[in-house]
């Protein structure tokens, strides 16, 4: 699948409020075509200069857009994760030797927390995918630019991109793994501790509660695998395999 179609598909599968935060790939492609066509007639033409300047301006604006959105989401996810961990700690204290809460009420609360962890996990996976697909789009459009115009923008620009906040996903990836560990620990306990239909129902609907996010997360994981899969076009600017 061509990158433009893959990006369009990913945008359509994203949250509505995320959709205008992705790479403006079509606009950048139009500018590359304009630069290439105007360069054939006169390298110093006004048209060429405008297109070249517009391309660089849009690239820089896109980087700023990615960074702003990514850092806002990252901050929100860190706060949500911390709050969930605090709620889990309180539940464990209530359930301990000196706990005063009925077992059933505790496990009902745990089921609610797991629903929120599942949703948070899915959203963070989508954010990692957001970083990956936008980086890939930048690398592709810069390769196209250099090939069609004879320019040498790709290497210095990508080196700059690698230092940007939106590309640095270590913190979110760490939280994703922590959520997976928490789910592995808590989910079996909730199911096995169900002592009545209501508690069991809470447990059974965990994944259904995040169905939309789960579906989008699976699509994001498939996209990441496709982008990171080694191929004949795999090179220095490609993302490493998962």
Describe the structure.
- Helix 2 runs antiparallel to helix 3 (46-95) and helix 2 packs parallel to helix 4 (103-149).
- The protein is mostly helical and 242 residues long.
- 76% of the residues lie in helices and 0% in strands.
- It has helices spanning 3-12, 25-39, 46-95, 103-149, 154-161, 170-192, 197-204, 206-209, 211-228.
- The chain is built from 9 helices and no strands.
Per-chain topology:
Elements: H1 3-12, H2 25-39, H3 46-95, H4 103-149, H5 154-161, H6 170-192, H7 197-204, H8 206-209, H9 211-228
Helix pairs in contact: 2-3, 2-4, 3-4, 3-6, 4-5, 4-6, 4-7, 4-9
Give the structure's gist in a few sentences.
The protein has 242 residues and is mainly α.
What value does the average pLDDT take? 80
Tally the helices: 9
- The chain-level structural class is mainly alpha
**Strand portion:** under 5%
What about the largest sheet?
A: none
Counting DSSP E segments of at least 2 residues, the number of strands comes to: 0
Low-confidence stretches: 191-210, 230-234
Q: Sum up the overall morphology in one term.
A: elongated
H and E string: HHHHHHHHH
Q: Helix share of residues?
A: over 70%
Question: What is the CA-based Rg, rounded?
Answer: 23 Å
Distance between the termini: 19 Å
